Every structure is written in C-alpha cells, then in structure tokens.
Amino acid sequence: MSALLTFLAAHRSEFGALFFQHVVLVVASTTVAIAIGVPVGVLAARRPRIGAPIVWLANVVQTIPSLAMFGFLLPLPFIGGLGARVAIFVLILYALLPIIRTTSAGLRGIDRALIEAGTALGMTPWQLLRQVELPLAIPSIVAGIRVAAVIGVGTATIAAAVGAGGLGEYIFRGLSMVDPTVILAGAVPAALLALGVDGLLLAAERALRIADPNRRRLTRWSFVFVAGLIIYVLSTLAPAAESRHVVRVGSKNFTEQIILGELIAQRMEQEGLAV
After folding, report:
1. pLDDT in tens, 98-131
2. Which of these, 165, 168, 160, 159, lies nearest to 191 by C-alpha position?
3. Beta-carbon-side half-sphere exposure of residue 26 (alpha carbons within 13 Å)
4. What is the spatial distance between Cα 80 and Cα 73, in angstroms, rounded to a whole number?
5. Phi and psi of 76, rounded to 5°?
6. What is each CA distance from 226 to 81, 167, 172, 196, in whole angstroms?
7. 156, 93 in Cβ contact below 8 A?
8. pLDDT tens, position by position, 22-65
9. How far apart are the first and last CA of the chain?
10. Which of 96, 138, 161, 231 is most solvent-facing, going by the fewest CB within 10 Å?
C-alpha cells in the first residue's frame, strides 16, 4: 500500500488527468444512455411488439466481450478509430440494457387500478405517463442507472486499449511491465470510483422510495452534499489534467524501448524539467 501511495504521489498530475478522463467517459456515456434507454423502455412497456426486438439487440450487445466490441467498431466510419469517440459509443451500448429493462419493469409493475383511475379522470396517455407512471417508476429507473454507471466505470478501463485514456492506462502499462504497483494504481481508484458511484446513486434511489417528506428532504440534501463534494474533487483534479509544464516521454511497449524512454526521462529530470 505504501508503494502505491508513493507512486500516486509521484505521478499526481498524470493520475489527475487519467482520473478526470475516466469520469468524463462514464458521465458522458451514461447520460446519453439515459436519454436513449428511458424512452426505449417506455416503448418496450407500452408497445411490446416494437420494443422486444430492441431489447433483444441490447441483450446481444451484452454477450459480446468489451475488448471484442472495441475491435469490431474500430474500422467503422464516423464512430470508429482510436480515441474517446469509439469508447463512449461502446459504453453507451453496454449501459442501455439495464436502463431499458428497469424502465420497462418499473412501468409494468404499476398497479393497473392507478392507471384506470387516471383514465377515469380524463388524463391523456401522455399525462398518465408524465404524472402517474414515470413518478412511480423512477426508483426502478434509478436502480437501472445505478447498474449502468457501475458497468461503465469497469468497462471504461478497457477503453485505454483504444487510446481513450482513463485509469485503464495504468492497468495496461502495469501488465506490460509486470509491475503490480502500476496495475493497482489503475485498479484501486477504479474500484473506489465504482463504489462511490454506486453509493451515490443508491442514496438517490432510497430518497425516491422514502414516503416521509422530512426524511426524503434530509436524504436529498445529503445526496446534494455528496454530489457537490465529488464535483469539487473533480474540479481540483481538472487543472492537473490541463497542466502544460510537464514533459511526457513516449516509447513503444517493449522492454528495451521502455528502458530507453526511462533513461531519456531521467536525463531531462537532471536538467530540472518535470517529466
């Protein structure tokens, strides 16, 4: 553990950049998946014949290993190529299934008597969806978002294989160097990030399930506090990600080239440069 902390302290600028990239990948992909998955889940609940093929496709995507998915999409135009674009697209695909399924299950689990009561009051289908069905299904939807976000944190580590950055850079680098400290520098923060995201969304889910208005208000304020704390941490890491006063030395992923790159880095450090 001391070796890990020493490594992170010595590479805090690079770690801040990679951590920030990892969070951006997860937030961007999960946000787009919510915008797509919730309407598709509503469609699957209300029009099963139309929604069933879409759910089937989402199931098929989940059966494809993430690394193989990156390989399939790399040669495609527009969405392919190296970088964050293909990584975000893959993360969106993997996040869709839990959101679609929980949205559909939440809407189907609503007591039909409530729907009939709303219809008897003269509500249109859109009013029923907006004022009755979605509010009652929100806890189930948030549970799906929670699963999707945790999946995204884990899958984003593979995105380093296509040059998208993130904490997976340390994992792949450590594997190539057979260095457990470097591997843990990527794996431990990724695991802690997954636990933090899961706990934050769990608090949001519980807040939506609480019937007591006072307890719900307290839980909401706790959720806002934790979210604000996370935003503050990210904002402090972001400037480190944009630092331009660090020289970066790149090398091929072979022993001799890595040694040569390290020699060059050490020579630069002797001249007083941050490498």
Report:
1. 999 899 888 888 888 888 888 888 888 888 888 8
2. 168
3. 29
4. 5
5. -75, 145
6. 36, 22, 31, 10
7. no
8. 998 999 999 999 999 999 998 888 888 887 888 888 888 888 88
9. 24
10. 231
